[in-house]
Write a structure and sequence with these properties.
Radius of gyration: 15 Å
Number of helices: 4
Strand order of the largest sheet: 1-7-6-2-3-5-4
Order of helices and strands: EHEEHEEHHEE
Organism: Desulfofundulus luciae
Shape: globular
Structural class: alpha+beta
Protein name: ACT domain-containing protein
Largest sheet: 7 strands, mixed
Strand content: 25-35%
Number of domains: 1
Helix content: 40-55%
Length: 172
């Protein structure tokens, strides 16, 4: 997998975080970083239009799981929003979380829940090139960069996605 960063050429922790999340979790379609709100926005795609009941169930299970996870971690969530859009024959699900309380294990939980809830309908890019130890390294990098972002004031709006086996990061 190759990486292309537009804008400044040095890779900041926030850019590295977005790259690592997309490499580790092929279920994440896009990821945005909003520096003003200190929020990460994860986008997932269902390969069909979900009905109201299905969307309500996805939102409820995700929000409940995030809340329970945060209680177990002893953290007070600032931002935890789930939104959706219907786009043609697809359903786009957006999960927003504040960087202050987000940890790598919660990202893994969100991805795993969506895998279970959407099953074969969750659009996923093939990720055959990574071995188990590579995945563990990516998880460590994600946790380290989340920690770093909590103490570093990042001012760039970033948007990252995959295309043809590459991760592209744009400074909006």
């Amino acid at each position: 997998m190759t990486f292309l960063v537009t804008g400044r050429e040095d890779v900041t922790d926030s850019v590295g975080l977005l790259i690592s999340i997309l490499v580790r979790y092929p279920e994440v379609a896009t990821i945005n970083f909003d520096p003003g709100r200190q929020v990460l926005k994860f986008t997932f795609i269902a390969s069909r239009v979900l009905n109201r009941r299905e969307i309500a169930a996805v939102k409820e299970k995700l929000l409940d799981s995030i809340e329970v996870f945060s209680m177990l971690e002893g953290k007070q969530i600032r931002v935890s929003l789930i939104d959706h859009q219907i786009c043609g024959h697809l359903t786009i699900i957006e999960v927003q979380r504040d960087v202050e309380t987000l940890v790598q294990e919660e990202i893994a939980l969100i991805v795993q829940l969506l895998r279970q809830l959407l099953d074969d309908n969750l659009v996923t890019e093939a990720n055959d090139s990574l071995f188990e130890e590579d995945l563990l390294i990516q998880e460590e990098i994600i946790e380290h960069m989340l920690d770093s972002m909590r103490v570093t004031a990042e001012e760039k709006h970033l948007f990252a996605f995959r295309e043809d086996g590459r991760v592209l990061v744009f400074n909006k």
